[in-house]
Amino acid sequence: MRPVYLIGAGQTPVAEHWDRSLEQLAGAALQAALDDAGQPPIQALYVANALGGLLNKQAQLGAHLVAALRLGAIEGYHIEAAGASGGAALHQAFMAVSSGVYQCVAVVGVEKVTDVLENELNAALATGLDATAEADQGLTLTAGWALLQQRYSYEHDYTASSFAPWPVTAHANALHNPNALYRFPLNPGKVAGAPAVATPIGLLDSSTVADGAAALIIAAAPQVEGENTRTAIRVAGSSLASVPLALGARPDPLWLDAVARSTIAALAEAQLDADAVNVAELSDQHGIVAALSLEASGFAPRGMAPRLAADGAYAKGGSLSLATAGGCKARGDTVGALGIYQIVELAAQLWGEAGSLQVPGVRVALAQCLGGLGATAATHVLVKE
Amino acid sequence: MELAKHWRLKGARYRLEGARDRRTNTITFPPPHFSGPDDELVILSGRGEIWSWSAVENGLDAWGGRYLVALVKLVEGPLVTAQLTDVDPDAVHIGQPVEMVTRKLRDLGEDGLLVYGYKFRPLLE
Description:
The structure holds two protein chains of two kinds.
Chain A: E1 5-11, H1 22-37, E2 44-48, H2 52-56, H3 61-68, E3 75-79, H4 85-98, E4 104-111, H5 118-125, H6 141-156, H7 165-174, H8 188-193, E5 196-198, E6 201-202, E7 212-219, E8 233-242, H9 257-270, E9 279-281, H10 287-297, H11 305-310, E10 321-322, H12 327-330, H13 338-351, E11 364-371, E12 376-384
Parallel strand pairs in A: 2-3, 2-4, 9-10, 9-11
Antiparallel strand pairs in A: 1-7, 1-8, 4-7, 5-6, 8-12, 11-12
Chain B: H1 3-8, H2 10-15, E1 17-21, E2 27-28, E3 39-43, E4 47-56, E5 67-74, E6 79-84, E7 97-107, E8 114-122
Antiparallel strand pairs in B: 1-2, 1-3, 4-5, 4-7, 5-6, 7-8
């Protein structure tokens, strides 16, 4: 095992890209990442994508994008793990470089969802659930999180408005992110007054799924020779864990055990404690997802995340800055590309290139993305050298 | 059509067939995809209580409008995802006793199946 570095990052805005195809989005993000890294030769492409087979009727995105993006005779892989696809693909790239097989590889996360109507999109998202035990019964992804929020609130004495700090913070942070889907502020009253999607989760505590692509260049050396002089970012920890897809098949559904295990492993690999993390990007499609992730990751005691959020713990300048570029709620949820967007945003924080989104003094960042109802969790720890 | 798929699931869907591990007495429902050497078939009572629930406002078209889903804790132990039926949405609550009933789950269209399966309703006292 040798050290692994992030040497380039790029993204497209998260938006309804009516005028751009999946291939064009992926190409734009990869080109930006390659430019950022100084155009190193890459030996493999890892494509993170969750819904291409269902929505774009295109499988084999590894081979397809190697050809479409004119990358020559390199290996191409398509990695799918629902909303954890990005983290799963980065983990594969990490292992390829860490093992010594490759010197430099690219990871591109891409999702193109607006070519179909909302019902088809929601049906595709529901394939991240257990097909027979859950989706066949009419469960949707949001309804699954709603079941967890309802029970969590009952056990720990919360109301729907207890989860408002997450969307409110996300929107405040996204105001100056030019790549964010939404750039307007939210207040808790607005969140509380929004219509329900699946009770107790309301529309303004629900992220919007949109189009986008993000890309990373992962290498065995901290920078391309003769190129930039900026601080090296080391991928210090990389881990993936899973539990049964169905909530009913888990001994304690309110404990996201895949999150716990992948976080423990990633931090151990980085030889760091949870306290060392300055900024984090989590799956935060709804406040409850962030709350349960924070608790399983060891950032909050069980049952306490909403109380800590109400005290500003996760806002900019809090003990752990979350969703510094808007998170799923305001930057937008790009499903299979989410895990790559998270790393692009955290890299900007570590390089000190985040402009008005910058959190001062960032040295350690953590990214975590979930598939389905937390069945897959991929966690990465990035360290400024 | 998915005809064979729904046919394979008939034991669990119509009779609440689960699996019991004779060594640990643990009951699993829906039954596991691969039976262990100590697993035996067990028919569950269909009685339980609501562990959590949600009124789904933006359900998929296939399910038609607003409906209630729940995680039901069966008396034998398993936690089951299912819809609630014959229920007053304003009176649903965690801990509410429910029982299994057989209902139409979905109509797969003119050339498709009518899919039947379990839902849960408030226990009739």
